[in-house]
Specification:
about 550 residues; alpha+beta; TATA-Binding Protein; seven-stranded antiparallel sheet; five-stranded antiparallel sheet; ResB-like_domain
Length: about 550
């Protein structure tokens, strides 16, 4: 070695002090990896259960709070009564829960989660059903159920007989390697998958109804007719793919409405029955058909169902203006103020009165009596036994000509464009009239009619949803009733020319008596009793008596 080499070697750092080579940092799983991870998390059964719980939790406000799809008048009353809380609830779609974006998001995620979880399971289950039964374990005596015996039949005959006996019990059987493997009970897992697939179909059917169906509400007074047209609905909710041309041209006329109430006892005033006598036409050229519309007995017409929702009273008024002309004559639906005895309120707008437009605010007591202190009027019963109305008259400009929408249940511009008439308050019974001060006109309380609110619902996913629900019930019942069972039969030559037969069974859950029946069928009446697990199988002598096994 030269001096140069020696000097160079002396300047090198010791091996222990040399810095280790830098290992490159992992670059991460990347966007595709994150998407795959997110998909795996979404399609787990745990996520599906969480989303199912969120759907159930989100449906709670829809069952507690009034919904615009069923009772828009109750929603308006709730908002008017809860001026602070109501707008916040409305901001989060609590009065239209099942059409809310947040509910739709949970619904879609649940559908995707179930599809991604169940469909691969169904494919794997199908492959398992087509696969051969698992091979026999080495030691059948260690299984939860096992038995052994000896017979004079050859091993081939024993296995052939085992194949026949097990197939007769609907086992899938495979014979190989001196043993018969049998398996059945896949119907339980099939039922479990059927339940989840039916749940998936149920969600799809509900989505189908929301996409192509519609739901509308209409208030119909006795003697009035409703035609199935968009312009005549008080509230209408179409599906996203719904077209107005899909409305069937049927009409419904309310002939009479009757409500029955408890007359005595602690439940006095509680409604017991509602019955709306109607007649309808399924088309312009169809004949009128009568029908008794009741709760849970909807009318089926034009591919839709007409349900009876609520009811109330509609007083009939005749209003004459200052010139003596009849400016208004019709029934006016009133909304309940107090649900127990149906104290109701409403407004009458008379824009055709001259020279000043007239309006009235009225309160109806179906069965008017004096309060306990005698200072006011109350309703003692919801039925119209003694109907009385009190009216307060107004005159001025109702603002209907401005084009701005107004509620038919509320007076707009009180104290601004319309003013109360001094002395324009009166209590009226049916048939009584009141002449307004200043010769502004007259108002007559002609009588009382009843109204009912109808819900028209067309849901093309209703029948598929019903079928899916039935299949779900059948599937979950099957999954609980059927359990997976496996049976193995091994036959081998024993001492003395006899055949040793070992039988093992494995049942998901608790053992069943089916295994004992299988062993008894395999042994037949000619063989001795089977030994318990761990015991030495007994041999039969010529006379059928058990003999001691050979050493």
């Amino acid at each position: 070695m030269t001096d140069t080499d020696t000097d160079h070697a002396g300047t090198e750092a010791p091996a222990a002090r040399q810095a280790p080579e830098e290992v490159p940092r992992p670059s991460g799983i990347g966007p595709f990896g994150w998407l795959r991870w997110g998909w795996r998390q979404l399609t787990t059964m745990r996520t599906a259960l969480i989303l199912l719980f969120l759907v159930a939790l989100g449906a709670v406000p829809g069952s507690i709070l009034p919904q615009r799809g069923q009772a828009p008048e109750k929603v308006a009353a709730y908002l008017e009564k809860h001026e602070s809380l109501g707008p916040w609830l409305d901001r989060f779609s609590m009065f239209d829960v099942f059409a809310a974006p947040w509910f739709a998001a949970i619904y879609i995620l649940l559908f995707v989660s179930l599809a991604g979880c169940v469909l691969p399971r169904a494919v794997k289950h199908y492959r398992s059903m087509r696969a051969r039964p698992p091979a026999a374990p080495r030691n059948l005596a260690r299984l939860p159920q096992s038995a052994a015996y000896e017979t004079d039949a050859s091993p081939e005959d024993v296995l052939a007989e085992a194949r026949t006996a097990l197939r007769a019990r609907r086992f899938r059987v495979d014979v190989s390697g001196g043993a018969a493997s049998a398996e059945k009970g896949y119907l339980g897992e099939t039922g479990n998958l059927l339940f989840h697939l039916a749940l998936l179909a149920l969600l799809f059917a509900l989505g189908l109804g929301n996409l192509f169906g519609y739901r509308g509400n209409v208030l119909l007074t006795e003697g009035k007719t409703f035609a199935n047209s968009l312009g005549l609905y008080d509230q209408f909710q179409p599906g996203r793919a719904f077209s107005g041309g899909e409305l069937a041209p049927f009409t419904v006329t309310l002939d009479d409405f009757k409500a029955e109430y408890e007359a005595e006892g602690a439940k006095r005033g509680q409604a017991t029955a509602f019955n709306a006598k109607i007649h309808y036409r399924s088309g312009p050229d169809a004949r009128n058909k009568p029908y008794d519309l009741r709760i849970n007995h909807p009318l089926k017409v034009g591919g839709a169902k007409v349900y009876l929702l609520g009811h109330g009273y509609a007083p009939v008024f005749t209003v004459r203006d200052a010139k003596g002309n009849v400016a208004f004559q019709d029934s006016v639906p009133f909304l309940e103020m107090e649900p127990r005895n149906l104290t109701s309120e409403g407004v009458v707008k008379v824009p055709d009165a001259e020279p000043d437009q007239l309006a009235f605010y009225a309160i109806l007591w179906p069965t008017a009596v004096a309060s306990e202190d005698g200072k006011q009027i109350v309703s003692a019963f919801p039925a119209p036994l003694r109907p009385v109305v009190t009216i307060t008259a107004f005159k001025g400009d109702l603002g209907l000509d401005s084009g701005s929408p107004q509620s038919v249940y509320k007076l707009e511009g009180v104290g601004k464009t319309i003013q109360p008439i001094k002395g324009g308050q009166k209590l009226l019974e049916p048939g009584e009239s009141f002449t307004l001060p200043g010769d502004a006109g007259t108002v007559t309380f002609d009588g009382l009619r009843e109204w009912t609110s109808l819900s028209v619902n067309r849901d093309p996913g209703r029948i598929p949803a019903l079928v899916a629900a039935i299949l779900a019930v059948l599937g979950v019942a099957t999954s609980f009733m059927v359990r997976r069972r496996r049976v193995w039969v091994r036959a081998s030559a024993g001492e003395g020319g006899r055949t040793v037969v070992e039988v093992g069974g494995l049942t998901l859950g608790n053992p069943t008596s089916e295994f004992d029946d299988i062993v008894a069928a395999l042994r037949g009446p000619q063989d001795g009793p089977a030994s318990e697990p761990g015991e030495t199988p007994a041999a039969d002598g010529p006379s059928g008596a058990a003999t001691e096994p050979k050493e």
